[in-house]
Write a structure and sequence with these properties.
This protein is α+β, with helices and mostly antiparallel strands. It has one domain. It has 7 helices and 17 strands. A hairpin with a 5-residue loop joins strand 10 and strand 11. Helix 4 runs antiparallel to helix 6.
Length: 286
């Protein structure tokens, strides 16, 4: 008969596994403030299992990686919609759709989706001082400054700030700030802000594959899993695209036993449904 001490040890080990690798089945609205409390969303981790033989890597509680792992997804596999309500032409690129608004303007495209999710995470943690992004001109837009009532005046490539509004840190003010950032930022400016990752095998959730340009493209690493026997690592990607559209979890065009997951050993080219990146396109937030 199993002793009480060994049973306690087994329960503790099981609890660690649950905390380290499993995801809650319900989305906490306080972590994703754009949601209504009655959204009924499923988490990314509860919807998309790790491939056979793999386990999700442990993440730090409260981290960007944990927040991304629990992103709310719409039920089923609905079509990807554009900002104007029309359907995206290519409905074969996604495995799931993130339950987040796109807005009603053609703003939240590829780099903007990365900015949106990073900013939403920081806002949910009340880390207002960390919410800042550069314009294509090189000028920095701080949400803290925006929340104090300052608004940018853009003339050609010159930006000045004028205090023309009252203090406001509300979510509505935050979303207005983001639409402003989307207007004046893109892949070129975001890529300059991020740190290069020299070895793609060290990739982690929250990293970005980004090719700067006009338009260029960017996709966000939203989860990572590891083969428990070999140490082989795989990851999930999310994107928006052009025109502005639902943020969605990408399919892996190669398919196979990995499903929607991508192998870090992808060689010279990372082929996603609508863009191809190289290992030296990998970047990281500070």
């Amino acid at each position: 008969m199993q002793s009480l001490s060994s049973l306690t040890t087994a329960v503790a080990a099981l609890s660690w596994i649950i905390v380290g690798f499993a995801a809650p089945l319900q989305v906490r609205q306080s972590d994703y403030p754009w949601l209504s409390q009655a959204s009924g969303s499923e988490t990314l981790a509860s919807r998309i299992p790790a491939p056979p033989g793999f386990e999700r890597e442990s993440v730090t509680p409260g981290s960007f990686a944990e927040w991304l792992r629990n992103l709310p997804l719409k039920k089923g596999r609905p079509p990807v919609q554009l900002y104007n309500g029309r359907l995206k032409a290519n409905q074969n690129a996604h495995a799931a759709v993130v339950d987040i608004d796109t807005g009603n303007k053609d703003l939240q495209q590829c780099a903007d989706a990365v900015i949106r999710l990073r900013a939403e995470y920081l806002y949910s943690k009340h880390a207002i001082a960390g919410i800042h992004f550069d314009f294509t001109s090189g000028d920095t837009a701080d949400f803290k400054k925006w929340a104090q009532g300052f608004r940018p005046i853009v003339r050609a490539n010159r930006v000045s700030w004028d205090k023309s509004a009252g203090p406001d840190t509300s979510y509505r003010s935050f979303r207005s700030y983001l639409d402003m950032v989307f207007t004046y930022s893109g892949t070129a400016s975001l890529e300059r802000e991020l740190q290069a990752v020299s070895d793609v095998r060290t990739l982690r959730a929250g990293d970005v594959f980004i090719q700067p340009g006009y338009p260029g493209h960017a996709v966000l690493v939203v989860d990572v899993a590891r083969d428990t026997r070999t140490g082989r690592r795989v990851f999930l990607l999310a994107q928006s695209y052009m025109p502005a559209q639902d943020i969605h979890i990408l399919m892996n065009p190669a398919g196979g036993r990995l499903g929607s997951w991508y192998d870090t050993n992808f060689g010279a080219s990372l082929k996603t449904p609508e863009w191809t990146f190289s290992p030296d396109h990998l970047r990281r937030f500070d």
